[in-house]
Design brief:
It is a single chain. By secondary structure, this protein is mostly helical. It has 2 domains: about 140 residues, Orthogonal Bundle (Peroxidase, domain 1), CATH 1.10.520.10; about 130 residues, Peroxidase, domain 2. Helices cover about 45% and strands about 5% of the residues. The protein contains 14 helices and 4 strands. It has a two-stranded antiparallel sheet. Strands 3-4 form a two-stranded antiparallel sheet. α3 packs antiparallel against α5, α8 packs across α14 and α11 packs across α13. The protein is globular. The termini are far apart.
Length: about 325
């Protein structure tokens, strides 16, 4: 690491020495004695699925993000709607864009067969996100366990707790701050958009009617805008999706930041990172030093994974991830 940091600006040294504030009751190796095969089972399930279809990595990472940002990392994103309640997974921000529930269920089923009633669905989601990043990007970090599962999931809790496609730097920074995450965490975690895709409707206004005044978003490279218009006509076809990174759509890497430098961020909430001195400086650093982004991404994921966790006597350990006990 000393070789990597040689000549790197002071801001990076400060980032690397920042201490993490993790959720009370969480620890690495939480299941070492009670269910020692838990993490290996999740890794095996995720590995087999992603080797067959690496395009399923983004949904698994997003599941963890969307779970933690609404009611904390309690597995509430996995709960099904009931006749009297619309759950988070069926909120407009999550349905139909989120998937991967069946992969979490498969891991849970195997773990329950080995260690019934011991491993939470919330922890499985956190392990699966890490293992997905490893499969498609070679990233690895130690995930803390000990989360308990929540019993409540309401679609009405999602507005205001998840970033919007139209969010600017100030709005994103404020949202992340409410989740006890810094602006640096926000820029770092945004790098997950180097994989995955988005529907045309999420960015069509940048192509045809930016800010309601017609025309293109001036922050977008005109040649990139032409490419996007060829894929997304004004009619906004609902089934058309566009990769965040068309060159390496299944590689979790720093190409996202390189694209931002070239004004090729797909969403407004992506390209807006170049509109602020602090965030644009981090974009430039990560684009130039991939190893540093990889390290910081793992740290930011651990920090995100501790948002408002339930531990100890709180919550429960679900027998099935999609319904409370």
């Amino acid at each position: 690491m000393k070789m990597i940091l040689a000549g790197v600006p002071l801001i990076l040294l400060l980032l690397f020495t920042n201490r993490m504030v993790n959720g009370a009751g969480l620890k690495v190796g939480y299941y070492r004695h009670t269910c020692p095969e838990a993490e290996a089972i999740v890794s095996d399930v995720v590995g087999k699925v992603l080797r067959a279809n690496p395009g399923l990595a983004p949904p698994l990472i997003r599941l963890h993000f969307h779970d933690c940002f609404v009611r904390g990392c309690d597995g509430s994103i996995l709960l099904d709607s009931t006749p009297g309640n619309v759950a988070e997974k069926d909120a407009p921000a999550n349905n139909p864009s989120l998937s991967g529930y069946d992969i979490i269920d498969a891991a849970k089923s195997r773990i329950e067969a080995k260690c019934p009633g011991l491993v939470s669905c919330a922890d499985i989601v956190a392990f699966a996100a890490r293992d997905s990043a490893h499969q498609v990007g070679g990233l690895m970090w130690a995930v803390e366990g000990g989360r308990r599962d929540g019993r409540i999931s309401r679609a009405s809790d999602t507005p205001g707790n998840l970033p919007l496609y139209s969010s600017d730097v100030k709005q994103l920074t404020q949202l992340f701050a409410r989740k006890h995450l810094s602006q640096e965490d926000m820029v770092t975690l945004s790098g997950a958009h180097s994989i995955g895709s988005s529907h045309c409707a999420a960015f069509s206004d940048r192509l045809y009617n930016f800010s309601g005044r017609g025309g293109e978003d001036p922050s977008m490279d005109p040649h990139y805008a032409l490419q996007l218009k060829a894929q997304c006509p004004p009619s906004n076809p609902p089934n058309v999706v566009v990769s965040f990174d068309p060159l390496t759509p299944n590689n979790l890497d720093v190409k996202y930041y390189v694209d931002l430098l070239q004004r090729r961020g797909l969403l407004y909430s992506d390209q807006t990172l170049m509109s602020n001195n602090s965030t644009s400086r981090l974009v430039k650093i990560y684009a130039k030093y991939p190893a540093i982004w990889r390290k910081m991404f793992g740290r930011a994921m651990v920090k995100m994974g501790s948002i408002d966790v339930l531990t100890g006597p709180q919550g429960e350990i679900r027998k099935q991830c999609h319904v409370p006990n």
